């Protein structure tokens, strides 16, 4: 398999994997409007993934024929959906990061600039969707508040990795992006009457591990399901 | 109330004249109670079919064999959720809330199309559903774009446009499989074999057994009989199957030159009735999955309502 060394690969993997996870919600969403909204976000991300992966090689070969250790996505995006609060927390963390990164990339002469420029609008919608739901769940009922707090706490350990420099994106001001991210997340969580988590965000498995191809246990199962049919018919056209 | 006021008779005359003139009845217009309840029942069943119908196809989203197909399938399942939304809104114009209708679905008091009680066993089933099930739905629904009730007719215009995309995409998926490897071709043929007869049953029982047809035709809710629509569908599918390089599992299919139609074999109505009664392969699975999603989502809906109440916004 020919894989071009490009930062489009890790960013494309983020979009591909999160889109897949969101696709698992189809038919399970808590309300019909969310069937539409979650599918919308999943489709936007899949669209991004296809453009990004195509910069690195053949989109289907990359998605269906790589082994787990060859995927470069963040561990955050591969985390299972959990309850709706976990899905929203994951989306809030990721979309806030993606919006900041794409806004930056759109203004550079990177090969990613055109994609980033086109995607910023949709990513801003994803972030707003997650922001609004964080407010509703955080400042809703006692149960929803407990669930939302548990979700932001549980996924916090995967957020340190978001700001580890990505190969090929050395000019991105990662530390400044991190500060903006932390400010935005803090503001959303406070508005939602939630507590900003304080747990560790760095450690053997939480600092750039996904970008190095080290993933968490649920990821292998996810890939097994995603790749099974394609791999069962080598060379077939779909 | 048992006495009929004179103004009631006058209103009824206006209603009858509107229907007779092929004009639309709108939510604020007076309408007979039976017309209202027939529409609610039909629109609800249609809405429920859209959302239950998401399940058999969503079953393949996570295994779609190419990213292009995955995007098409996700968009299709999303469209079906959208159809559910328009239809529940159309039912709301008749004074019945979505919650009330979902309740009736979950408790088995209202039905959805029996076709979705069949399983999607292989990837080719996604294509067969698009081609045959969306195809049959279009044949059924195009005449509903002229239904006498305005909001339903308008919802159907939008729905039919999207269903015809689904039908073409399903056809194209099957064509790719049919022209692919031997294993892919066999997968496509197997799916068509399993979905053909249930698709014909989607038009409902034969005309002489159809309970609600005559009144619905008089009210212009329905425009063609079940058997007429079924025949129309068969006539469309036979040449398409040939173009696909696939066969339809009916040895009795023959062209009748005199009638100008394809004759087809006997439909197994015993199977239809069994599935309708709840004994199909997936009835239990579909409805419990739906109930589960609804129950697991209860805390989310409650939170949205509580937040809206605190902050003075609409919850939806
Ligand atoms: Fe539909
Ligand atoms: Fe459809």
UniProtKB/TrEMBL annotation, chain A:
Phylogenetic classification of the source organism: Bacteria, Bacillati, Actinomycetota, Actinomycetes, Kitasatosporales
Record-linked NCBIfam families: PA_CoA_Oxy3
GO cellular component, one term: cytosol
Pfam families: PaaA_PaaC
Alphabetized Gene3D superfamilies for the sequence: 1.20.1260.10
InterPro entries reported in the protein's UniProt record: Aromatic_CoA_ox/epox (IPR052703), Ferritin-like (IPR012347), Ferritin-like_SF (IPR009078), PaaA_PaaC (IPR007814), PaaC (IPR011882)
Protein's recorded name: Phenylacetate-CoA oxygenase subunit PaaI
GO terms classed as biological process: phenylacetate catabolic process
Automatic annotation (TrEMBL), chain B:
Listed InterPro entries: Aromatic_CoA_ox/epox (IPR052703), Ferritin-like (IPR012347), Ferritin-like_SF (IPR009078), PaaA (IPR011881), PaaA_PaaC (IPR007814)
Gene Ontology biological process terms from the UniProt entry: phenylacetate catabolic process
GO molecular function: phenylacetyl-CoA 1,2-epoxidase activity
Listed GO CC annotations: cytosol
Entry-linked Pfam families: PaaA_PaaC
PANTHER family, per the entry: 1,2-PHENYLACETYL-COA EPOXIDASE, SUBUNIT A, PHENYLACETIC ACID DEGRADATION PROTEIN PAA
Protein name: 1,2-phenylacetyl-CoA epoxidase subunit A
């Amino acid at each position: 398999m020919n894989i071009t060394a490009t930062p489009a690969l890790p960013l494309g993997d983020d979009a591909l994997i999160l889109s897949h996870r969101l696709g698992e919600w189809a038919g399970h969403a808590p309300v019909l409007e969310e069937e539409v909204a979650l599918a919308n976000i999943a489709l936007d991300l899949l669209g991004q993934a296809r453009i990004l992966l195509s910069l690195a090689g053949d989109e289907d070969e990359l998605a269906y024929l790589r082994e787990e250790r060859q995927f470069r996505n963040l561990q955050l995006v591969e985390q299972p959906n959990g309850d709706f609060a976990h899905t929203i927390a994951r989306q809030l963390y990721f979309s806030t990061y993606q919006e900041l990164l794409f806004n930056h990339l759109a203004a550079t002469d990177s090969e990613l600039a055109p994609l980033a420029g086109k995607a910023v609008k949709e990513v801003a919608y994803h972030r707003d969707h997650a922001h609004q739901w964080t407010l509703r769940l955080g400042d809703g009922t006692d149960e929803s508040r407990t669930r939302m707090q548990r979700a932001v706490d549980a996924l916090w350990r995967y957020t340190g990795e978001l700001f580890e420099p990505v190969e090929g994106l050395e000019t991105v001001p990662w530390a400044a992006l991190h500060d903006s991210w932390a400010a935005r997340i803090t503001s959303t969580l406070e508005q939602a009457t939630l507590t900003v988590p304080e747990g560790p965000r760095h450690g053997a498995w939480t600092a750039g591990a996904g970008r190095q191809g080290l993933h968490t246990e649920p990821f292998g199962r996810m890939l097994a399901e995603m790749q099974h049919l394609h791999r069962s018919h080598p060379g077939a056209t779909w | 109330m048992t006495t009929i006021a004179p103004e009631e008779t006058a209103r009824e005359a206006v209603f009858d004249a509107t229907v007779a003139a092929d004009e639309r009845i709108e939510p604020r217009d007076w309408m007979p109670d039976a017309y209202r309840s027939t529409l609610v029942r039909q629109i609800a069943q249609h809405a429920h079919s859209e959302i239950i119908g998401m399940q058999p196809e969503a079953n393949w989203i996570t295994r779609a064999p190419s990213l292009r197909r995955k995007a098409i399938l996700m968009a299709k399942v999303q469209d079906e959720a959208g159809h559910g939304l328009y239809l529940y809104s159309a039912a709301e114009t008749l004074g019945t809330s979505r919650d009330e209708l979902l309740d009736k679905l979950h408790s088995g008091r209202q039905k959805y199309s029996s076709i979705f009680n069949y399983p999607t066993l292989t990837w080719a089933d996604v294509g067969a559903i698009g081609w045959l099930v969306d195809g049959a739905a279009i044949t059924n629904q195009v005449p509903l774009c002229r239904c006498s009730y305005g909001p339903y007719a308008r919802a159907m215009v939008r729905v039919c446009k999207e269903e015809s995309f689904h039908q073409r995409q399903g056809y194209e998926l099957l064509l790719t499989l049919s022209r692919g490897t031997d294993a892919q071709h066999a997968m496509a043929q197997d799916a068509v074999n399993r979905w053909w007869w249930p698709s014909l049953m989607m038009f409902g029982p034969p005309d002489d057994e159809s309970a609600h047809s005559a009144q619905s035709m008089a009210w212009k809710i329905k425009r063609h009989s079940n058997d007429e629509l079924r025949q129309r569908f068969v006539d469309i599918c036979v040449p398409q199957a040939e173009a696909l390089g696939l066969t339809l599992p009916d040895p009795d299919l023959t062209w009748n030159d005199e009638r100008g139609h394809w004759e087809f074999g006997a439909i197994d109505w015993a199977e239809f009735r069994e599935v309708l009664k709840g004994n199909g392969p997936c009835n239990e699975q579909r409805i419990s999955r739906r109930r589960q999603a609804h129950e697991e989502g209860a805390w989310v809906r409650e939170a949205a309502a509580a937040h809206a109440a605190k902050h003075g916004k609409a919850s939806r």
